[in-house]
Amino acid sequence: MAHPLRIAIGADHGGFDLKEDLKGYLASLGHQVHDCGTTSREPVDYPRFAAAVAQRVATGAADFGVVVDGAGIGSAMTANKIAGVLAAACYSEALARNAREHNDANVLTLGAGHTDADTARRIAGVFLTARCTVDRHQARVAMIRGLEGERGGGGSISAEDVERVAVRVRALLGQAPPPAAAAAVLAPAQVAQLIDHTLLRPEATPADISRLCEEARQHGFFSVCVNPAWVRQAAELLRGSGVKVCAVVGFPLGAQAPEMKALESRRALREGAHEIDMVINIGALKAGDDALVLRDIRGVVEACRERRACSKVILETALLSEEEKVRACRLAARARADFVKTSTGFSSGGATVEDVGLMHRTVAAAGLKVKASGGIRTLDDVLRMTAAGAARIGSSSSVKIVEEARAQAGSQGE
Q: Is the dihedral of CA 254, 256, 258, 259 positive or negative?
C-alpha cells in the first residue's frame, strides 16, 4: 500500500457484524480506521451513524467513509445530505469502480442483507484504490457538486442535527430518551479536532516542538502545524497518536518559484507530513497572472495527491481585494486543492468572519473547505469562524481554546 488512508466506518444494528469484519480487515491493510458506531446489535437509527461518518469525511477528518445498514440505501441518502459528500451504495466491484472512477464518491454504503463479508472486502478494496482522473468525469462531478451551492439554506446537516431529529422521532413514538441525549453544544473533543495546533515562530527550538507535540497528544488536536525543518521531529514524536503533521510551504511570503514549492512539499511529505499549507504567489495574483498562480498551486496539489495528503492554499486575505480573494479561491478549486486558508498569521491581518464566509460561498460547490487562521485566540473566535463556514482552525492559542471549551461544558453540566 502506497499510503495509509484515514477511514471512518459506521453501521446500524443490521450492519454491525459486517462493519466489525470490515474494520478489522481495513486495519490489517495498514489504514487508520475510526469507528463511529454502533457498538452492538441493539436496535438503533441508521441516520445517526451515516451522518457521523459523512461529517468526518466532509470536515477532512477522514479520507473516505464506509457505512453498513440492511440495504445500504438509507445510509447513502443520509450521507448525501452532508455538503461535500458523494455517497454511493455499491453491491459489486464493478459498481464500486464506477462510483469512484466516474463519480469520485467518497463514502461507500453497503447492504448487509445483500453482501457477504468476502464480497464486501473486495468492494471496499476497489473503492479505496480506484481514482477519478478522466477530465470528462471530473467535469460531471463538478456539476454534481455545483448543485450544493444552489440549495437553499446551505444544504449541510450536522451529526448533531440528525441526533435531534432522531430524538424527536423517538419522542413521537413514545421512546424518547432523557433530554440530555441530544447534544446542544460542541464538545471539547470536537473543538480540539477542528484545530491545527500551530508553532511557526522563527525562534522555535526542538524543545518547543516537543512541547507542541505533547500538547497535541494530550488535548487531541487534529494536527500540529510546523515549519518544514521540524517535520521529521514532529512525525517521530506523534507516531501512533492519530495527530497529523502539517507543514507550511513557501512560507510566509509565497514568493518562491512553483518548482521550489513543489520540491519543498515533496520533501516534507517524505519526512512524515500528512498535510501541506502553501502560500500562493500573492504578487502574481494581484498582477493578474492567473496562469502562474494556477501552476504554483497545482504543483503542490499534485505532490500531495501522490501521497494522498491534504493540500491547503493560503491566500493572505488581508492583502487582497474581494475580487482577488474570489479569483484565488477559484484558482485553488481549478487546481483541485482540498482547502483554502485565510492567512499566514505573519501579515497585516488575520481571519475575519466576512472573509471566511466569502471563501466558503466561493468554494463549497467545488467541494473545497475553508481553514481560518490568524488572530484566533478564543473559543468564541472558533465558534464564529465555524459558523461562517470554516471546517478547520489554525491557532497557537489552541490549549487555551480547549480549556475554555471544557470549562463551558462543565458549567453547562452543573
A: negative
Report residue 3's pLDDT band, with 50, 70 and 90 as the boundaries. low
| 81 assigned to active site | no
Active-site annotation holder among 19, 312, 325, 371: 371
Specify the pLDDT at position 34: 95
Question: 133: cis peptide before it, omega within 30°?
Answer: no
Lookup: cell for 5: 488512508
- Asked about 244 being catalytic, the answer comes back as no
Q: How far is CA 184 from CA 37, 48, 119, 158, 172, in A?
A: 20, 15, 40, 12, 20
Cell of 303: 505532490
Query: Rounded to two decimals, what is the model's pTM?
Result: 0.58
Instruction: Give me the residue label for grid cell 480573494.
Output: 325
SS3 19: helix
Distances (CA, A) of 410 to 42, 47, 200, 397, 400: 30, 29, 32, 20, 15
Q: For residues 409 and 412, give the distance between their C-alpha atoms in angstroms, rounded to a whole number.
A: 5
Element spanning 11, H or E: strand 6-11
Exactly one of 341, 355, 369, 381 is catalytic; which is it? Answer: 341
H or E stretch at 383 = helix 379-388
Classified as helix, coil or strand, 107 is strand
Q: Looking at 35, 277, 296, 338, which residue is catalytic?
A: 277
Q: What is the mean pLDDT of the chain?
A: 89
Which stretches of 33-134 are DSSP H helices? 46-58, 73-79, 93-101, 117-129
Residue 197: strand, helix, or coil: strand
| d(C-alpha 179, C-alpha 164), whole Å | 10
Catalytic status, residue 45: no
- Let me know the angle formed at the C-alpha of 216 by 229 and 32, rounded to the nearest 5 degrees: 90
